[in-house]
Amino acid sequence: MVRIASAVLLIAVVAGTIWWLPWWVTLVLAVGAAVLGGRELAGLAAHAGTPVSPGFLSLARGGTALMRAVSGRTEIGLSSDGLPALLLLIMIAMGLIALVSGPPSPLTLTRIGILCLAPLYVGMPLGAIARAHATLGPAAITWFIGVVASSDTAQYYTGRLNGLHKLAPVVSPG
After folding, report:
1. CB-CB neighbours of 128 under 10 Å
2. Is residue 111 pLDDT above 90, yes or no?
3. DSSP code per residue over the chain
4. Which has the least CB within 10 A, 103, 105, 116, 135?
5. 100: closest CA among 115, 86, 85?
6. What is the pLDDT confidence band of residue 77, given thresholds at 50, 70 and 90?
7. pTM over 0.85
8. Is the pLDDT of residue 126 over 70?
9. Is the pLDDT of residue 137 over 80?
């Protein structure tokens, strides 16, 4: 029941933001989701024995989402050339932070991978959603979210009906 209530609330907030508020509110929501997701990923990494800096991870994911959404927007004076440079700086900084955050160990490369790929894996798509809302409008974003949600739902039920074994039992929500 809690899952259904939280899903209904989340759908209402996202749909209301996309359809009735300006694009920059979608950007604020996307950056907020990237920051919260950074903290969650840091918690998962710590639980798996690979601690990473939650603050820096959240900042990098939020910054990546922000830069992806606003780069190239002439009305605010940013060029699209700034995004690759920012991503390169974020990756270098995260790699250095991972190297100096503890003694060298086999987990150092795992920490570097988590810190460098997390902004790309979450920050870029969330920023792209905010950017698409600004350039393509709410109908395109609604279609995109509907396709992703339909795909997730179809995969879940197909797996439940036809799957003999979970493909990834460690990460599968069941």
Report:
1. 15
2. no
3. -HHHHHHHHHHHHHHHHHHHS-HHHHHHHHHHHHHHHHHHHHHHHHHTT----HHHHHHHHHHHHHHHHHTT-GGGT--TTHHHHHHHHHHHHHHHHHHHSS---THHHHHHHHHHHHIIIIIHHHHHHHHHHHHH-HHHHHHHHHHHHHHHHHHHHHHHHH-SS-SSTTT---
4. 103
5. 115
6. very low
7. no
8. yes
9. yes
Nearest to 128 by CA among 148, 151, 150: 148
What is the rounded CA–CA span in Å between residue 113 and residue 117? 6
Is residue 50 within 8 A of residue 117, CB to CB? The reply is no
List the structure tokens of 110: 């795992």
Question: Counting Cβ atoms within 10 Å, is residue 27 exposed (0-12), middle (13-18) or buried (19+)?
Answer: buried
What is the spatial distance between Cα 104 and Cα 109, in angstroms, rounded to a whole number? 9
Closest CA to 45 of 101, 126, 123, 128: 101
Residue 69, Cβ density class (10 Å: 0-12 exposed, 13-18 middle, ≥19 buried): buried
The sign of the torsion formed by the CA atoms of 110, 34, 54, 152 equals negative
pLDDT digits 0-9 by tens, 19-40 = 998 888 888 888 888 888 888 8
Encoding tokens for residue 10?
Answer: 């989340």
